[in-house]
Design brief:
The chain is of the alpha/beta class. Helices cover 36% and strands 20% of the residues. It has a single domain, classed as Alpha-Beta Complex (putative 2-phosphosulfolactate phosphatase), CATH 3.90.1560.10. The protein is built from 9 helices and 11 strands. The strands form 3 sheets. It has a 5-stranded parallel sheet, sandwiched between helices. The longest helix is centred in the last third of the chain and has 16 residues. 48% of the residues are buried. The mean pLDDT is 95. The structure holds (2R)-3-sulfolactic acid. The site of (2R)-3-sulfolactic acid (3SL) has 13 residues, from loops.
Length: 239
Amino acid sequence: MEERKRIEVCFTPGEYEYFKGEYDIVVVIDVLRATSAICAAFDNGIKAIIPVATIEEAREYQKKGYLVGAERKGQIVEGFDFGNSPYSYMKEELRGQEVVLSTTNGTKALSIASDAPTVVVGALNNLDALAEWLAKQNKNILCLCSGWQDKFNLEDTICAGALCDQLIQTGNYTSTEDSSIAAKYLYISAWDNPLGFLKSSSHRRRLKNLNLNEDIKYCLTPNKTTVIPILKNGKLVKL
Ligand code: 3SL
């Protein structure tokens, strides 16, 4: 019998070095809000997103005439075209465009993972489509949670746990790390009511204080889209 593949969870970019190099596919997750906004952008017909880790890199692209989104601590960075709200990417004028994006944690995680053979974007918004695609790859998978400034967060972990659960249920995958087992249990506890479960989570509070309730609701709604963004030569494109 063929050995089962692994799906594991890394809680924060800061721990990535301990997982690095062992996985064929890395799923970068930043439910609130970077990877949800990226899925919304592709759902709306954006052509490509160039994720950059720093504001300096974002400024360089801006000088070259690119449309650039930049967010730090939940807010649009002054001087940029938009931030990180999924709703910013639903505008008609962005269809068919190539844009640049820099966010506090999500694009940093994408940049850290960029040396992996395959990097895809995960969110609750594309959960089932992504799980179905991952199951067909039959490869070792790491879910890299973006967290918050290298600290653990609940929403990314729940999303990673949901992916583990779906893949384990196929019978072809297993999770052996305690982080993955914990993520799966958190997902099981949260799933009846993710919005309620995350009521007191740190980033939900942070975004609520910025009056971003609609963004929170959008990002915490599973399966709004079937798009799977994938990193190719430094750009995210639709798979
Ligand atoms: O950390 C990130 O990359 C962002 O998603 C944070 S925020 O939701 O825009 O505040």
